[in-house]
Design brief:
Layout: H1 2-14, H2 21-27, H3 33-50, E1 54-59, E2 62-67, H4 72-78, H5 88-100, E3 103-104, H6 105-112, H7 117-125, E4 129-134, E5 142-146, H8 148-153, H9 165-172
Antiparallel strand pairs: 1-2, 3-5, 4-5
Length: 173
């Protein structure tokens, strides 16, 4: 069992994206999903108890190593101050997509009151937004939604973790 736990830890570490239990089960075909889930929980507990620079977090339908928030300034310094910055316009457009998805561009334009072509293009390039298909209406406009990368970057397991409008209003007060 300890070897399997070490393998799971290595797989999560080596994965560029959050790793799901299903993907781990595909790789470790002789290990039951319940056992994989248990070993992941043990690893999460061990990293939490250690209180080091890393921890395991459930995000975007999987598990991923993260750096502790309190150490963010050091990571920022190492990267030379570069981060993945979004303009206020892009953040507003992303919020509309996240809360209204599936959504077409004309709906986003109407809500924001401006043409969102540039913001939407940037969000597609950064892989925060994806094309989900086309709406079955005249003109067949493209339908947009968020991606797993959006969930990953904003530390969300799924869209149900987005703050509600009431929570957002409480923050503003």
């Amino acid at each position: 069992m300890e070897e399997n736990k070490a393998i799971i830890e290595a797989l999560i570490f080596a994965s560029e994206y959050p790793l799901s239990t299903d993907k781990i089960a595909d790789i470790l075909s002789d290990v039951k999903k319940d056992d994989i889930d248990r070993m992941i929980r043990e690893l999460m507990r061990e990293y939490e108890e250690r209180s080091g620079g890393l921890y395991l977090q459930e995000v975007a339908g999987g598990v991923q190593f993260r750096t502790r928030e309190s150490l963010g300034a050091w990571i920022h310094k190492m990267r030379g101050g570069r981060g993945m910055m979004l303009t206020p316009a892009a953040m507003e457009t992303l919020a509309v997509v996240a809360y209204r998805q599936p959504v077409v561009k004309s709906e986003i334009d109407k809500i924001r009151g401006v043409d969102v072509s540039g913001s939407l293009r940037g969000l597609l390039e950064k892989k925060f937004v994806r094309i989900m298909g086309r709406k079955d209406v005249p003109g067949k406009p493209i339908i947009y939604g968020t991606t797993k990368k959006f969930l990953e970057v904003f530390n969300l397991k799924d869209l149900s973790e987005l703050p509600t409008l009431r929570e957002l209003k409480d923050l503003q007060e």
